[in-house]
Design a protein that fits this description.
2 copies of one chain form a homodimer.
Chain A (H helix, E strand, L loop, with lengths): L1 E5 L5 H11 L3 E5 L10 H6 L7 E4 L2 E4 L1 H11 L11 H26 L8 H26 L13 H8 L14 H11 L2 H12 L1
Parallel strand pairs in A: 1-2
Antiparallel strand pairs in A: 1-3, 3-4
Helix pairs in contact in A: 1-3, 1-6, 1-8, 4-5, 4-6, 6-7
């Protein structure tokens, strides 16, 4: 049994979809950011980083979306969610996920979480102002080169797909023009039709 | 034959050390940031992200340090640079590397690369001002909980070690007090005594 600690509208949805696709035996637990539950002593014992997602496994707790996604794919190999026995193809998938985590998600985070990197309200406002440009530049690269189609890595569906889908939920609010990235939008639509994705989103809304 | 595109004093050193530890057949190629070579058309063909590291392999080019490190460990299994056949232990190592990439390195990057996230010079200065706090908080977590000792993952040396060592080169310049993180400093010292590390650094200086 796995327990996924999640918050709605965050990147934890990617791991949630991956668990669903893997056919894992899991439960979800809401961490309520509205009451800063991620800072509670109970949650800090689970994840001292005070963030989501965190995945409680029989062997211990894991954090960081790229690590969780690869773990779910490797732990449930029969689901075929990552290339196996091909270090290069696996690394290509990991590189995509790492880019989402450390470049695209970070560009996005300057809209809502600027306080992580500056205290001055004017500086935080200046960060917010640049978010559309910074995030759009990431999507332009994905549209042009990284997204192979129909899935991120090409013919094969992998855990990179729920990750891109999850982050692509935020692009309109980040000020990205969807008309400039039709392949990303088409990928998002295709993902939203999967039963696993519908179920994960419905379960988060009901939690 | 592998080719590692690197720049001195950047995170590419981590992959360089890992290649050396793996006993790989590789060459290094300097990308000169002083003349913005990372933006040159030749380099953009190799890595459209305009960053280092990039690793040219017989199968194609890989980017993103956490992906490269895992690739090197998996491609050269006899070097024992990552847990094999244990998805949980592998994910723990990947989670550490992902934290360095997307939290610690990002906190550091606001000192020199603030232009990525704001245009206003006052905002960029405000980001620089917060770097000591933001980076110190990351090292406090590593010191207290993530670094098991003697190596990052405990008794076993992995590719997480050259990555922490590489990023720890910058901590004094980031305004972190080394006296508060003795275990990180001891790890850095232990790493600096390895012949592989000495050779990688010397080869970068000579390039």
């Amino acid at each position: 049994m796995f327990i996924l600690y999640f918050a709605p509208h965050t990147c934890s949805l990617a791991s949630h979809i991956a668990l669903e696709e893997a056919g894992a035996d899991y439960e979800i637990r809401l961490i309520d950011f509205n009451v800063r539950e991620q800072q509670s002593s109970d949650y800090l014992e689970i994840n001292p980083k005070a963030r989501v997602p965190a995945l409680k496994t029989p062997q211990g707790v894991l954090t960081e979306t790229p690590a969780l996604l690869a773990y779910i794919a490797q732990r449930f190999p029969e689901a075929g969610l990552a290339p196996r026995d091909d270090a290069f193809a696996f690394a290509e998938m990991q590189a995509f996920n790492s880019y989402l985590c450390s470049t695209l998600h970070i560009a996005h985070a300057h809209r809502m979480r600027g306080y992580r990197w500056a205290d001055d309200p004017a500086a935080i406002a200046a960060m917010q102002k640049k978010v559309p440009d910074a995030v759009s530049a990431c999507y332009a690269l994905i549209e042009r080169q990284l997204l192979r189609g129909p899935w991120v890595m090409g013919a094969r569906y992998t855990v990179a797909d729920p990750y891109l889908f999850t982050i692509a939920q935020w692009l309109e609010d980040d000020g990205v023009d969807p008309d400039l990235i039709p392949r990303v939008i088409e990928h998002r639509s295709r993902m939203s039709e999967r039963e696993t994705v519908k179920k994960a989103i419905a379960d988060e809304q009901a939690a």
